[in-house]
Design brief:
CATH architecture of the largest domain: Orthogonal Bundle
Largest sheet: 3 strands, antiparallel
Distance between the termini: 55 Å
Shape: globular
Order of helices and strands: HHHHHHHEEEHHHHHH
Number of helices: 13
Strand content: under 5%
CATH superfamily of the largest domain: Intergrase catalytic core
Number of domains: 2
Low-confidence stretches: 39-43, 101-105
Structural class: mainly alpha
Number of strands: 3
Radius of gyration: 21 Å
Strand order of the largest sheet: 1-2-3
Mean pLDDT: 85
Length: 295
């Protein structure tokens, strides 16, 4: 159970980019839920059905929990089972038809162009790890990939001649995403000057590898992001997802259409992409208030 909870926390941290307090709230809720189902007749959470989850929610009410608290626990459980489905740990999501109240969606954090440039300027361009890091950061910002998609890229997924990558997102859905000239340049240098030094001749088709020549992990890449965010002096809680949010926001700010951004991000539903239109509107209002003489 502990290992699953740890993986869930990593998912919330690296993939979703949640704050420490939010992650702790999810973790506490899931630990309590797992303790409940362990004490019952069900010994594996993968066997829990809808009735088992409803029984837990009724248990919370019987313990005197307020409706808002019970709803929050349900949201945590839904997110947890979504994670289990993504990781292919379970085949059926028992929370799928359990209704929960609609919550206001938090606008995603993103970086300004200046902040992105600042972070991209931090890696040592004369060091083999720095060459790798700048290639990863540039490619992440150029494509809006999820961190898990970035570290899962294979050498054959890159088409340098035509300037695109092939990635497999949620549900193993394949999509093609273009990459710009700056990312291509950094990636080309990494492949020519750095990767073979890190792998030391070891076989393997992973595009990005660790300092020991092994496949890059989500935790390893998260640490790289944190390192350069700290060096850049940007006072924001930055994660790999922040660059994904910045990618989408900057495209829409410059006139990209929503459907194209949806395809590049790999969103199944365009309503997920529409959250970025709210970000752009907020950004435009901020610029207007700051610069218009009669604001």
């Amino acid at each position: 159970m502990k290992s699953i909870v740890d993986e869930f926390v990593n998912y919330l941290t690296i993939e979703k980019g949640h704050s420490h307090n939010t992650i702790e709230s999810y973790r506490r809720d899931i630990v309590k839920f797992l303790e409940f189902i362990k004490c019952g007749t069900i010994d594996e959470f993968g066997k829990v059905d809808q009735r088992g989850i409803i029984a837990y929610l009724l248990h919370l009410r019987e313990k005197g929990r307020a409706s808002a608290s019970v709803s929050r626990h349900l949201v945590s459980i839904k997110v947890f089972y979504k994670f289990l489905m993504l990781e292919e740990i379970i085949d059926i999501n028992p929370t799928e038809n359990i209704e929960s109240p609609k919550l206001l969606r938090r606008l995603p954090d993103f970086l300004t162009l200046e902040e992105v440039d600042n972070i991209l300027a931090q890696p040592d361009k004369n060091d083999r790890l720095g060459i790798r890091d700048i290639a990863m950061l540039e490619l992440l910002y150029a494509t809006g990939l999820r961190a898990s998609e970035l570290i899962s890229l294979k050498l054959n997924d890159i088409n340098m001649e035509r300037g695109y990558i092939i990635t497999f997102g949620k549900g193993s859905k394949e999509r093609v995403v273009p990459i710009g000239s700056s990312a291509q340049e950094k990636l080309k240098r990494y492949l020519e000057e750095s990767r073979h030094l890190l792998t030391k001749g070891r076989g393997g088709d992973e595009l990005f590898v660790s300092r020991f020549g092994e496949k890059m992990t989500r935790q390893g890449f998260w640490k790289i992001i944190k390192k350069y965010a700290l060096l850049s002096g940007i006072n924001k809680d930055i994660s790999p997802h922040t660059l994904r949010h910045s990618f989408a926001t900057h495209l829409l700010e410059r006139g990209a259409d929503l459907r194209s951004v949806q395809q590049m991000l790999g969103h199944a539903d365009i309503s997920t992409t529409q959250i970025y239109t709210h970000v752009v509107r907020e950004r435009l209002k901020e610029i207007y208030d700051k610069h218009h003489p009669r604001a």
